Amino acid sequence: CYRENILKTAKALVEDTKLLVSGAASSQDKLAQAAQSSANTITQLAEVVKLGAASLGSDDPETQVVLINAIKDVAKALSDLIGATKGAASKPADDPSMYQLKGAAKVMVTNVTSLLKTVKAVEDEATRGTRALEATIEYIKQELTVFQSSEVPEKTSSPEESIRMTKGITMATAKAVAAGNSCRQEDVIATANLSRKAVADMLTSCKQASYHPDVSEEVRERALRFGTECTLGYLELLEHVLLV
Fold first, then answer.
1. SS3 content of the chain, % helix, strand, coil (to 5)
2. Where do the domains of the chain lie?
3. If 23 and its partner were Cys, which of 31, 145, 161, 198 is the partner (CB 3.0–4.6 Å)?
4. Are 24 and 89 in contact (CB under 8 A)?
5. Are 14 and 109 in contact (CB under 8 A)?
6. What is the CATH code of the structural domain delimited by 149-242?
């Protein structure tokens, strides 16, 4: 029942995505309507996903987290898409903002597809861990793209904060190795959830610290390079766990 509702609402959201993209080239009224429609649809989708997560029961909290993370990714992608649509409104087809809009729409569809795959996998205990890991790998890749962009963070943090966040990577790495050894679904799901947070926190703090007023351009470039290398190394580790 929940799966059918999620599928139906997700399809409606994909249609809203198409309207948002086409709305950038049309009137402000149509764009506003498309934005409002997508906001309503994502609210409905969040509700049915939460009901689906609740139906799993409290004895499987890690899988509930996987589902909630999947809808959070869709909501974030929609927010970015609406922002990109506003930026591209009334611009010519070859304007850079139009390419940004197409990229945001692609991420949106990718995350909706990922949500649907996750919902399907939840019904099959044998594939839950694999799917959770695949979703985390996709999420980390998206976060790395944001990290590598020229966008300056809204706030800065101290280098000490960045160092503190690397401890999460160390813990997640140990968990990933253990999950690769045990091959138990629950271990793999827990690894996926922990890895997602550890890498995202590290990337955020690394970028914020690299833009601290006391940091030179040379140090900033090195910090950003090492942040990327750390993430790529961790992605390789998760790919190995997935293979195992």
1. 85, 0, 15
2. 2-125, 149-242
3. 31
4. yes
5. yes
6. 1.20.1420.10
CA 107: distance to chain centroid? 9
pLDDT digits (tens, 9 = 90+) for 176-187: 999 999 989 999
The first and second tokens of residue 4, run together, are: 């059918």
Backbone angles phi and psi of 95, in degrees to 5? -70, 140
Low-confidence ranges of the chain (pLDDT < 70): 1, 25
Domains 2-125 and 149-242 share a fold: yes
Can you give the pLDDT at residue 190? Answer: 95
State residue 1's pLDDT score.
Answer: 60
Among residues 174, 188, 89, which one has the least CA distance to residue 134? 188
Give the C-alpha separation, 178 to 163, whole Å. 24
User: How is domain 2-125 classified at the CATH fold level?
Assistant: A middle domain of Talin 1 (1.20.1420)
User: DSSP label at 92?
Assistant: -
How far is 228 from 244, CA to CA, in rounded Å? 25
> Counting every residue, how long is the chain?
244
Amino acid present at 207: K
Q: pLDDT tens-digit profile of 114-171? A: 999 999 888 787 888 999 999 999 999 999 999 999 889 999 998 888 889 899 999 9
* Cβ neighbour number for residue 148 with a 10 Å cutoff: 14
**Rounded distance between C-alpha atoms, residue 190 and residue 133, angstroms:** 9
Round the CA-based radius of gyration of the chain to a whole number and report it.
19
What does the alpha-carbon distance between residue 70 and residue 76 come to, in Å, rounded to a whole number?
10
